[in-house]
Amino acid sequence: MKSSVRVVPLERVSAPLLAVALGELSSDKVPSSLLSLDANLGGELARMLAAGDFTGKPDEVALMYPSKGAKRVLLVGLAKSEEITRGAVRRSAAIAARKAIEAGAGAMAFHLAPETHGGVTPADFGQVVVEGVEQGAWRFSEFRSDDDAKKRLRELEIIATREHRSDVERGRKIGAAVAVGHRLARNLQALPGNVCTPGYLAAIARELGKAYGFKVTVLGHAQLEKLGMGALLAVAQGSSQEPKFVILEYKGAGRSAPLCFIGKGVTFDSGGISLKPALNMEEMKYDMSGAAAVLGLFEVLGQIKPKANVVGLIPATENLPSGVAIKPGDIVRSHMGKTIEIVNTDAEGRLILCDALSYARRFKPACVIDAATLTGAIVVGLGSHAAGLMGNDDALLDEVRWAGDLAGERCWPLPLWQEYREQIKSTIADVKNTGGRPAGSITAGWFLREFVDGFPWAHIDIAGTAYTDADRPDLPKGPTGIGVRLFTQFVLGRTGG
Ligand code: BES
Ligand code: MN
Ligand code: ZN
């Protein structure tokens, strides 16, 4: 999608749809910035506000047809003025984009009424409008031949005032970069397991490296054996797809310690010998959502080239049952050297991540953040409204939460108290890979922590937030691309950008 910032009176916008975001007003009079637009509407806006049919509450929409200028005017509610945040504006833009697509509009314009801009700065406005429109307008039609699925929003004009134009433009550029990475992540998530294999993820990483000029290394079976990545190899052994371990290295800050991001890349999780039930098992193609977030981040890095060093690690494999698959009771040796009793082959995410965590040591990272669709328990605990957050460093956890809040990807902390560690002690090996039903997300976090050595680390459990099975007004159902915006915000926070 193409985006641009324009300085033009609202009544002269010519797009097929002009969205105007408006918060709750203190009176039912038309705000002065919308008076000339209302003239094109023959006073309909004034009558609508007077009737109390549009009050500026979140998610409220009203469609109108002016006699001149834009073909449609869509009012979108924001919130009360003290609640008008980046998130509220992003959400209104997403809602507007969904409406634009429904209406078959190939282009839209977006304006935020200055009377109700809340605390959102012009630069933030430029950024979150592009992010929101991309979020709402995303569609995946690669495997559909009907025309309806091909409807696309191709162009976004952000309407700004002359004095704010350059600030809005600065934000727009970041938003556009984030949007490209976000789209990549969601497209990868949407691909079925027979297309998006470990090798496919590796090929995408290589393409990114080539396009943006950063180093990408892909380790295959033989190298993983040499490195002693026994936990990753154990998960992979039931599949005919070769596992891949992908290393992306973006350098934008000389010799400073890198920020390291790890993404779980299980391209299909059947559970293995501990087979999952059939109902909704197809959703387990999304078990590579953490990997998609890391690849999306690297696309954003390539676009905005921040002054930071960033390492991305993606352990990628399928988890399938077969005559040569790992079995409950098997014991494997991890890359770090600790032995693992595999009690349940469906707890495979932590097995591939533990080898990535110990591999991360060689980069002497400033911090390591992993994103993984790790546990069904986090879906039970937090549903789809927040990701679970755990780690070994309170300052880092606060920073991740800050980034998540700004990015509209909230994280909520869970404790890694020593008491929980007892649950993953094994009688026959150093650790076992499940701790039973109680506190399932925390014991998974503890398992990972066993392999964290010498760096601040945060773990984000995105099993409940990586995809949605319900349509939301601001988010079509399917993959959410979660992580791309949070990771980007985290990197920008570290570089002061
Ligand atoms: N990929 C799943 C977790 C998951 C569940 C992701 C629901 C998305 C939606 C993970 O590999 C898994 O199977 N976890 C098990 C662990 C258990 C066997 C200890 C789970 O949560 O049931
Ligand atoms: Mn599993
Ligand atoms: Zn899994």
Q: What's the topology here?
A:
Elements: E1 2-6, E2 18-22, H1 35-40, H2 44-51, E3 61-64, E4 73-77, H3 86-102, E5 107-112, H4 122-137, E6 155-159, H5 165-190, H6 198-212, E7 215-219, H7 221-227, H8 230-236, E8 244-251, E9 259-263, E10 265-269, H9 289-304, E11 309-319, E12 331-333, E13 339-341, H10 349-360, E14 367-372, H11 376-382, E15 387-391, H12 394-407, E16 411-413, H13 418-421, E17 431-432, H14 440-449, E18 457-461, E19 467-468, E20 478-479, H15 484-495
Parallel strand pairs: 1-6, 2-4, 2-5, 5-6, 9-11, 9-14, 10-11, 13-17, 14-18, 15-16
Antiparallel strand pairs: 3-4, 7-8, 8-11, 12-13, 15-18, 19-20
The structure holds ligand BES, manganese (II) ion (MN) and zinc ion.
